[in-house]
Structure formats: structure tokens, C-alpha cells
């Protein structure tokens, strides 16, 4: 395994700087009171493509040699990583093909196409995605950029946690959602190199709790197509990301579907910003585990804001 290091995160920060936003860190007294802690929200909903995925995608795409880049890139994604790869490829002037499940949110399809990506649809489920992207690679010869089990992607995602630590000052803990584990792995790298005393917690839907079960079992436990409103967190860990979850994540905290929706609505109402359900998982985990974070300075990564406004979870 090519395990990235903190130096890779620092290199990624320099490499992707011209292509991504340094997103703001916001606070909110009302949410802090509810949590009994000082909360610092890293707002990747304001990132390019509306999600943190722009970081890892840009680092991976701009790490390709000129010869490699001529072949273009391909990936599979429920939406945010796909948009990010299409965006990064567009910035580099190369072709991108994105395999997406038919059930992905319409704004994410529109986003990929809007950034110039070619969309190939497949049935939902990890196996279906992997089979479809294998066919694309056979047809095009493109460079495959895995959504999370990739050292360049993980190092790029690590820049999010690094900025949070640089801008918020000392944090006792950082809480980030976990699906395939690219963000949480990068966050572990950032914390270990910049603030070793900061604990990293992963937050996960109860209905897609394979990371929690994997950490408990000591090996990867896969769910092929879990059903959760947090559509960005349906992927299972891979060997590289499991390494970080097993060795560097303090605990995986799970939340119910209702807790996710309630947290999402709370952020919309109290902070006046748009976040998607996957982002709300981390907020819900902090609110649910008040005793764990009481009196602490806690960073929460709001991973994205790509929401289908015609399918809001609280709409009748």
C-alpha cells in the first residue's frame, strides 16, 4: 500500500491552491449551546463543485504526468467526486468519464455534465460501479482515479483538515463523515502532522455503518448498497482507508436517519447555510454525543451542499 504522509498533504496544499477555495470556518452560538461545546464548522459546502471532493480530485489530476494526462481520467461516483474529477479535468484540459448510479441526485448529474464530464450510468451498488468503470477503462485507456482509496486523493482531502486546524487554532477533536474514508483518512494525516493532540472521530449513518463494524471487527466489512439519505456515505472502506480508520480514528459514531435530517434542518435554520445530508451526519454525531465533547473545542467538517431542492427530506 502506498500510504500518504503529512508531507504529501503539505505538497497537495501547494499543488491545488490555484484551483480550490480556502473555505471559511464558521461558529454558531446556538448550535454550540446545544452541543455544550465550542464548535468550528469547516464549510466545504462553499468549495468548488460544492464539496470537499474538489481537493482530492485536483491533487490527483494535477499529479498526472503530461503523458498520462493525454489519456484522460475516469472514475465512479454518486456525484460529488464525479463532479470534482470533471472540474479538475476541465481545468487541466483533458477528457473525463464518470460512472454514476442511476439513483444519484439530479443536481449531481447536471454538475458532472456542466463541468464537461461524460456520464455513464449503472445500477446502484459498489459492484455495479466497479464493473461499469472497468468497461470504461478498457474502452478509453483512461487513468482511473479512485474516489477514496488513492494516496493522491487522500492527501488532497487532508488539506481540508489542515486548513481547519490552521484557521481555528487548537482543537480537541475533529468530527468528519465517513463513507469510503478518503476525507477521514486525510483528516487523520492533517491532525497527526499539525496537531497530534487533536482526536479524530468519524460519523456514519446507522443504516450504512460498515466503517463502525469494520473498526470493531478489525477487518473490512462491506455493504454493497446500503439505504440512507446520506447518499455520499454509501461506499465501504478499502485497504488504504481502513488503515487510517483502524489505527488513527478514535471512534466511529453512528446516527439515525431522523437525527441526520434534524441536524440538516437545524444547520439550515440556525446557520442560514445549505448543507447536504452527508454533511449533517457529523453535526448529528456531535449533538448526539454531548457527554463525549462537553466543554471541548470541536471542529466539524461540513462536507458539501449539493442538494436536490425538489426532494428536501422535510418536504411533504
TrEMBL record:
Source domain of life: Bacteria
Family matches, as PROSITE patterns: DEHYDRATASE_SER_THR
Annotated transmembrane regions: none
One biological process term in Gene Ontology: D-serine biosynthetic process
Q: Determine if Magnesium is one of this entry's keywords.
A: yes
Kindly list the cofactors needed: Mg(2+); Ca(2+); pyridoxal 5'-phosphate; Mn(2+)
Domain (Tryptophan synthase beta chain-like PALP): residue spans on this chain: 18-304
Tell me the GO molecular function terms.
Answer: ATP binding; L-serine ammonia-lyase activity; magnesium ion binding; pyridoxal phosphate binding; serine racemase activity; threonine racemase activity
Keywords assigned: Lyase, Magnesium, Pyridoxal phosphate
Q: Which Pfam families match?
A: PALP
**PANTHER family attached here?**
SERINE / THREONINE RACEMASE FAMILY MEMBER, SERINE RACEMASE
Family indicated by similarity:
Belongs to the serine/threonine dehydratase family.
Q: What is the name of this protein?
A: Serine dehydratase
* Native species: Aquibium oceanicum
For this protein's source organism, the top of the classification is:
Bacteria, Pseudomonadati, Pseudomonadota, Alphaproteobacteria, Hyphomicrobiales
Amino acid at each position: 500500500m502506498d500510504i500518504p504522509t503529512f508531507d504529501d498533504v503539505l505538497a497537495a496544499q501547494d499543488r491545488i491552491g490555484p484551483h480550490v477555495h480556502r473555505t471559511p470556518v464558521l461558529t454558531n452560538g446556538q448550535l454550540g449551546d446545544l452541543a455544550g461545546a465550542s464548535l468550528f464548522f469547516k464549510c466545504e459546502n462553499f468549495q468548488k463543485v460544492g464539496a470537499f471532493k474538489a481537493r482530492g480530485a485536483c491533487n490527483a489530476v494535477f499529479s498526472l504526468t503530461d503523458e498520462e494526462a493525454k489519456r484522460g481520467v475516469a472514475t465512479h461516483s454518486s456525484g460529488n467526486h464525479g463532479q470534482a474529477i470533471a472540474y479538475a479535468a476541465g481545468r487541466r484540459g483533458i477528457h473525463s468519464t464518470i460512472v454514476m448510479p442511476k439513483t444519484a441526485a439530479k443536481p449531481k448529474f447536471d454538475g458532472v455534465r456542466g463541468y464537461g464530464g461524460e456520464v455513464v450510468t449503472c445500477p446502484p451498488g459498489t459492484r455495479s460501479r466497479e464493473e461499469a468503470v472497468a468497461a470504461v477503462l478498457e474502452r478509453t485507456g483512461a487513468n482511473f482515479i479512485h474516489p477514496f482509496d488513492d494516496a493522491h486523493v487522500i492527501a488532497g482531502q487532508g488539506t481540508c483538515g489542515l486548513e481547519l486546524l490552521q484557521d481555528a487554532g487548537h482543537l480537541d477533536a475533529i468530527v468528519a463523515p465517513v463513507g469510503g474514508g478518503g476525507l477521514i483518512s486525510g483528516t487523520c494525516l492533517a491532525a497527526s502532522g499539525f496537531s497530534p493532540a487533536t482526536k479524530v472521530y468519524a460519523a456514519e449513518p446507522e443504516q450504512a455503518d460498515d466503517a463502525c463494524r469494520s473498526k470493531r471487527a478489525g477487518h473490512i466489512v462491506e455493504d454493497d448498497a446500503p439505504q440512507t439519505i446520506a447518499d455520499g456515505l454509501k461506499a465501504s472502506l478499502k485497504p488504504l482507508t481502513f488503515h487510517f480508520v483502524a489505527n488513527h480514528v478514535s471512534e466511529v459514531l453512528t446516527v439515525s436517519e431522523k437525527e441526520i435530517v434534524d441536524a440538516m434542518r437545524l444547520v439550515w435554520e440556525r446557520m442560514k447555510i445549505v448543507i447536504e445530508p452527508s454533511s449533517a451526519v457529523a453535526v448529528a454525531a456531535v449533538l448526539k454525543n454531548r457527554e463525549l465533547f462537553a466543554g471541548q473545542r470541536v471542529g466539524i467538517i461540513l462536507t458539501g451542499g449539493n442538494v436536490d431542492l425538489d426532494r428536501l427530506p422535510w418536504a411533504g
